[in-house]
Amino acid sequence: MAWIKIDDNLVQHPKILEAGDEAIGLWVRLLSYSARYLTDGKISYAAARAILGRRYSPVRALLKSGLLEDNGENYQIHNYLKYNPSRAETLTKRERDKERKAAYSAKFPGGKKTDAKGPVPVPVPVPNNNKANKKPANKRKPDPAVTLVFDHWKTYHTTARATPNQKNLIKKWLKAGYQPEDLIAAIDGIHLDPWEDREKYLSLKYALKDDSSIERFIGFKRNPPKRKLSELEQSMVDFVNEDDDQNGKTGIFGSYGPSKGLLPEPSKAR
Predict the structure, then answer these.
(1) Quick check: pTM over 0.70?
(2) How confident is the model over 119-132, as a mean pLDDT?
(3) Every domain of the chain and the residues it spans
(4) Using one digit for the tens of pLDDT, what is the confidence trace for 44-67?
(5) If we measure between CA atoms, which residue out of 202, 176, 177 comes closest to residue 190?
(6) CA–CA gap between residue 164 and residue 171 (Å, rounded)
(7) Bridge partner list, 68
(8) Does domain 10-83 fall into CATH 1.20.20?
């Protein structure tokens, strides 16, 4: 990539003011073209037509102001080499930069030298003795009683994870004098609670909330309470019991044949 130099006083220069904005736009494009293709400011007529299109008035304005010159063979940007490097200077600089980068890369593993013969040797990694001799940290062995209680909880909730808070909760009640069997009974009891369908109650924290909750759920384990029916379930039971008293078995909850008093006999349905 090459760069062009433009004076920061460009907008106030008399030649710029004389040429006008449209011509100055073309002039900057010609500068960029010359720097890109290293033409030393020379612009062929064909290149000028490709850049300009069918408009010639901007070229006429540049020629009149002196920013562009016509030597009969091509256009020449005025004083281009006075402010911009020549083709030879640019190519020499690029070659020097290429050699400098190659020498810099050769200082590092995997770098390539232009005059090197054969592959560059790969350095052998040196083991870190500090890490090799470092003793592993002593990990605490899991408490078997805590594991026993939580594994029982996991039989109800297979995706549960033994977080530090849950482990500490179990340890708390084990230290308070409860046996693992007591906590397991409380876990069973909470799942026999008539309100077990409420998710917020089905948590280990709620099962082992305090002494009263633990004793309550242990009581559920020993003497399971009758589950409370929903309004829909209770209405269905009441309907069946009432219909049984009037018409006998309806067959709603069993294979007793057609419902008496509710559905027509097969022969009448036809």
Answers:
(1) no
(2) 65
(3) 10-83, 144-222, 231-263
(4) 988 888 887 777 888 888 888 898
(5) 202
(6) 10
(7) 77
(8) no
